Amino acid sequence: MIRAVSTYLFVNYRLTTALLDKIHRAGLPAVEIFCARQHLDYRNRAQITELAHWFRDSELRFHSLHSPLYSDDAWGRSGPSAILNIAEPSKTRRTQSVDEIKRAIEIAEYAPFRYLIQHLGLPEEEYDERKIDAAFSSLDELSVFARQRGVEILLENIPNALSTAERLASFFEVTHLNLGVCFDVGHAHLDEGVEPAFRKLEGRIRSTHVHDNDGKDDAHLFPLSAPQGTVDWKKTVDLLRSCGEDVPVLLEVREVPEMKNPLETVQQVFDRLENL
Question: Which domain holds residue 219?
């Protein structure tokens, strides 16, 4: 099991080389960086250059970058225009989203990474054929841009009517886009269920997001640590192991304010998962 963690755990803080050092010292071989401008400002050349120099001298692997969800540094609170949505039917707004995501992908020119994790639509977005056409146009353009920089786009199953495992499988069949998947365990648990979702996407899974919830709220809980979590981790770990050694088990968990040493808890979670 390749252990990896998303910096989503620290998304409310600026991403620094000191934080990356802590992740590396915790014995984690790979990291996914969550692209939110209050955390990683992809428009800030100085921050990107500093991180790039650090990765060149480190054994920590920059596995993936989570595509930005907003163009501002306040989780979209600056207004609707800050929301990034590649499935937006309006060509003008969709183009703005695509251009913003390209700015994030350009990080690979300084600090290479393998995968960009991309959402298809917004949380709880309703299904519409126009949105499918819009997403295809966006991804067709973004895929070319990403490949030129050595990056592969992975679509993530998220809780909306465009991105359940069944909808993603249908999207691939209709569009013939040769894209992989980042399989999100917690989101699958909220939708079809972990195993049914996994079976629909298993041939395309290249990475994962691993977190727990109660089956109702997308809480991004630490697996095997939160009493309200209801994912069957024994079955889930067996499924994830079947993906092969190249697919990491990547924790994407939310900060717990009272938790003094979250990276220590991350290691404990991995130990428990491996011992199941």
Answer: 3-274
